[in-house]
Amino acid sequence: MKHGVGIVGFGGMGSHHARGLIPKDRMDILGVYDINPKRMEVAQQEGYPTCESFEALLANEAIDIVLVATPNNFHRDLCIEALRRGKHVICEKPVTMHSGELTDIMDVAKQTGNIFTVHQNRRMDIDYLMVKKAIMEDKLLGDVFCIESRVQGARGVPDGWRQYPVAGGGMMLDWGVHLIDQIMMMLPEKVTSVYCKMYSIHYKEVDDCFKLFLTFESGKTALIEVSTSTFIELPRWHVSGDKGTLKIADWNCDGTVVRAKETEMEWEEEIVYTKAGPTKTMAPRPKHTIEEIKLEEPTTDYTQSYRALADAIEGNGAPLVDPAEAMRVMRVMEASFESSRKNEVIHLTV
Ligand SMILES: NC(=O)c1ccc[n+]([C@@H]2O[C@H](COP(=O)([O-])OP(=O)(O)OC[C@H]3O[C@@H](n4cnc5c(N)ncnc54)[C@H](O)[C@@H]3O)[C@@H](O)[C@H]2O)c1
Fold it and tell me: What is the distance in A from the centroid of ligand 1 to the CA of 68?
């Protein structure tokens, strides 16, 4: 049985779903609605049927799945309306503007019995899968004590709604949501504190950069940084464990682990001279006591969110993203805004 998909919001991401994420062997796109007539024209040119209104899309009984890919401030109402009209819903990230809106949607999903899930596509990113495998499955770093995850650009915040708080703009809701979600998938423990510093360097109304420090129940930590004003980037990933360190430099996914061999670390009798003068502690470690491992790139499949949703509708398994997981991320983001506003550590258990 093939499912019928209706797309609300055919901008950058809605059109990307249509072109590459919705698996055509399991689903047909039966309706597209966008408030901008130009985007409706684009949809038509690409061969997708368009609907004159959201109502018309909902009235199409052959559509059983609705994708919500509008700016963030419209997610709540559109998701609730679609669920009430008997549709299963997949919503773009960030699922909502705040946790109260997400609670509203989850309540309606429960009342109606329809499936509600969130598109957290960065769970399928190759760099993330490499880190996850290295630290969780292969345990190459021993006991991990800090994960640093960064995305840094110098192009500013894109034109349009991302520059305005009323539409859910800013980098915490745009990128923070992905990076926090990835970290929470890798450290399956509760977050116990949050310290965040947000910056508005070029865009005064929203956070165009932030630095966020998370502490987990066991004492493990994560540092997440997003910047739109960085001209020399730090590594995309830098992970510290008691046996070694992992680095993935950038989007090219060039990943390396350097770790201690069984051989004991030997200290020189003499002080070591570097260009910055003498140091023993911070001198390079003797080569024969370390090994370097190149990380392999796994394959990935970005259609998984839809495949899992189709399976769940057919009674086989659960959607890829449980809204409760999105709620945890939302709570961490809310604590981050509070932390930055008050310049305080926020203690929570989430
Ligand atoms: N998962 C990801 O990696 C990723 C990447 C980019 C964007 N997104 C998310 O996708 C959503 C859309 O972002 P985008 O980059 O495509 O933005 P966009 O501005 O390119 O597209 C949004 C589209 O929604 C339309 N629209 C606005 N209000 C509407 C309404 N009430 N009803 C119908 N259509 C409406 C606009 O006309 C526009 O065409 C956001 O929630 C964003 O966070 C996710």
Answer: 8
Report the pocket of ligand 1 as residue ranges, CB < 6 Å.
8-14, 33-36, 39, 69-72, 74, 92-93, 119, 121, 160-161, 174
- CATH number of the domain encompassing residue 137: 3.30.360.10
Ligand 1 atom nearest 74 alpha carbon: 31
Task: State phi, psi for 83 to the nearest 5 degrees.
Answer: -60, -45
User: For a pLDDT cut of 90, what percent of the chain falls above it?
Assistant: 92
Q: What residues have CB less than 8 Å from 134, skipping those under 6 apart?
A: 140, 141, 239, 246, 255, 257, 295
Q: How confident is the model at residue 270 (pLDDT cuts 50, 70, 90)?
A: confident
Decide: pTM greater than 0.90: yes
Nearest atom in ligand 1 to the alpha carbon of residue 11 is 21
Residue 167 belongs to some domain of the structure = yes
Domain interval for residue 84: 3-119
Nearest ligand 1 atom to alpha carbon 177 = 43
